[in-house]
Design a protein that fits this description.
Blueprint lengths: L5 H22 L5 E6 L3 H9 L3 E6 L2 E6 L1 H9 L3 E4 L3 H9 L15 H14 L4 E8 L5 E7 L11 E6 L7 H16 L4 H9 L1 E5 L4 H6 L33 H12 L4 E6 L2 E6 L11 H12 L14 E3 H4 L6 H9 L2 E8 L9 H17 L4 E8 L8 E5 L2 E6 L6 E5 L3 E9 L5 E8 L4 E3 L2 E3 L19 H4 L7 E2 L5 E3 L3
Parallel strand pairs: 7-8, 7-9, 9-12, 10-11, 13-19, 13-20, 18-21
Antiparallel strand pairs: 1-3, 1-4, 2-3, 5-6, 6-8, 10-12, 13-16, 14-15, 14-17, 17-18, 19-22
The chain binds zinc ion (ZN).
Zinc ion binds next to loops.
Length: about 500
């Protein structure tokens, strides 16, 4: 038998490698690939953060991160122990994306086109409860869908908004499947299940099941520009010049989410990821505790305690303050919390980023009650409207709780606000531009109930607060200082009642 000379064999091999390289490059949105970095102590982690490393998870002294070839070389030259690890998610994507199992009722990772069809079908099938809109397009032109589930979906009502977002990282698609199931669960069980009925009737539930459609359709962490969307929001850290609504350097997907959230800030909100098991609460960018640190712990526990999978979390009770796990800058969680007065947490649903579709039903069953319980945390606190006393017109104002710098903002179309709080007694003040602020003292909050309190503000100048306020962003601290404001006080008609 004739043998092929070695030189020709080698040349053929080289040609094949060269032919294959562009194929690989075309399928990825970034030259960053998964690596594991060993650190010797927490100081090593801080240095990685300062270098802008795209850290994905930290487990003991092992840091999972996405590195470009130059970042890899740089870390090696700095003395880090770094090794590439297989991209398990791209392998899973090739196996599972769009593949239905034998039983038609089994959950699976739908093709983007199938997902779009099902989302639009929600609004068609449940016109009294559901609206679907595109909040923008991805880099590759896919629609970013938002589903609103509520009674009277065409009317802005004085009720708290709850926002749920999934799959900022395209290779973490479990959240998309869960939010699609949740939407269907809410729509199908409204009118028969009292818990679902109360949630839908008394809240505006806003769901973006797929925030990164290009990444999802390609099995890629990044958007099609190679941007990590959960590091792309305005960054409140001191080394950033970002203001809460600055648009420079933002991906189209980030801008779409920002505009949609700013249009209707939520009382409580979350975004879903995979790669770990934990509920992560603010802040991510600093070890400083948030003004609502205790409240965040209780909200996170409402999720974790109702999700049996979280028992396997390495963190006590399945919750962790973000920066104590690892610091990130430009995340959605801190932006929504500081930028627009939301209370936003990040849920890591499973250690496996892209688990086999056979596990999706179990994941849905494990997380269904947790999602409902988390949404219900929006009921405990003080809710009401800020209105002009003379005209009754709704006002774009803000609500301050004495001793707490996290203000919430009233909804411009209805004047409605919802300030989620722990049970206790509070002094609350309402502000609006060109109006005299007003305070109510010793208002009680009871677990599971909304204390209703409307504020009717007189027109006039408030010498301590002549302007308006629209954010808790740290770089307007001087404006946000409510230490000793002049205000009128009254015994208003506040009472503890059912949700508005
Ligand atoms: Zn993620």
């Amino acid at each position: 038998m004739e043998t092929i000379p070695l030189k020709i064999k080698r040349d053929v091999l080289i040609v094949l490698i060269i032919l294959c390289l562009p194929c690989q490059a075309l399928s990825a949105f970034s030259d960053r690939t998964p690596h594991e970095i060993r650190i010797s102590a927490h100081g090593g982690l801080e240095r990685l953060v300062r270098l802008g490393t795209d850290i994905d998870r930290v487990s003991g002294l092992a840091v999972s991160a996405y590195l470009s070839p130059s970042e890899f070389k740089n870390l090696i030259s700095m003395g880090y122990s770094v090794r590439p690890v297989p991209d398990r998610e791209i392998t899973a994507y090739k196996l599972y994306y769009g593949r239905k199992s034998k039983a038609a009722t089994d959950l699976y990772y739908p093709l983007y086109s199938e997902l779009s069809d099902r989302i639009t079908q929600f609004a068609t099938s449940y016109p009294a409860l559901c609206r679907v809109e595109s909040i923008g397009q991805s880099v590759e032109g896919r629609e970013i869908w938002a589903v609103t589930v509520t009674g009277n979906p065409d009317t802005r009502e004085p009720e708290p908004a709850v926002t749920l977002i999934a799959t900022l990282h395209g290779n973490e698609p479990v959240g998309t499947v869960l939010l699609m199931e949740l939407t269907e669960h809410l729509l199908e069980n409204h009118g028969t299940d009292p818990r679902v009925t109360a949630l839908v009737n008394h809240h505006e539930i806003r769901i973006v099941p797929l925030a990164n459609p290009d990444g999802y359709a390609s099995g890629d962490r990044y958007n099609a520009q190679g941007t990590d969307l959960n590091r792309n929001f305005p960054d409140p850290s001191p080394n950033s010049a970002d203001y809460f609504d600055s648009i420079d350097g933002r991906a189209p997907e980030t801008l779409a989410l920002m505009a949609w959230i700013m249009d209707r800030p939520a009382a409580v909100s979350l975004n879903l990821h995979t790669g770990f098991l934990v509920v992560n609460y603010p802040y991510d960018f600093t070890l400083d505790t948030a003004p609502d640190d205790i409240l965040f712990q209780h909200m996170s526990l409402a999720y974790a305690a109702n999700c049996p999978d979280m028992a396997a979390s390495v963190y006590a009770n399945g919750i962790v303050r973000g920066a104590e796990w690892y610091v990130i800058e430009g995340g959605l969680q801190d932006w929504a919390t500081l930028g627009k007065g939301e209370l936003h947490v990040t849920v890591e649903l499973s250690n496996e980023k892209y688990p086999a579709p056979q596990t999706l039903s179990a994941l849905w069953n494990a997380n269904r009650d947790a999602l409902l319980a988390y949404m219900e945390t929006s009921d405990t606190g003080i809710g009401g409207r800020i209105l002009d006393r003379a005209s009754g017109e709704p006002l774009s104002g803000w609500i301050h709780i004495e001793g707490n710098s996290h203000d919430v903002f009233s909804e411009r179309q209805t004047g409605f606000f919802m300030r989620v709080l722990r049970p206790g007694t509070y002094t609350i003040t309402a502000y609006a531009e060109n109006h005299v602020s007003k305070s109510v003292r010793d208002l009680s909050v009871v677990q599971g109930e909304t204390t209703i309190c409307d504020f009717l503000l007189e027109k006039g100048s408030d010498p301590d607060h002549p302007g308006t306020k629209e954010t808790n962003w740290p770089r307007i601290e001087a404006v946000a200082d409510h230490s000793e404001p002049a205000r009128s006080e009254e015994d208003s008609g506040c009472f503890i009642g059912c949700v508005l």
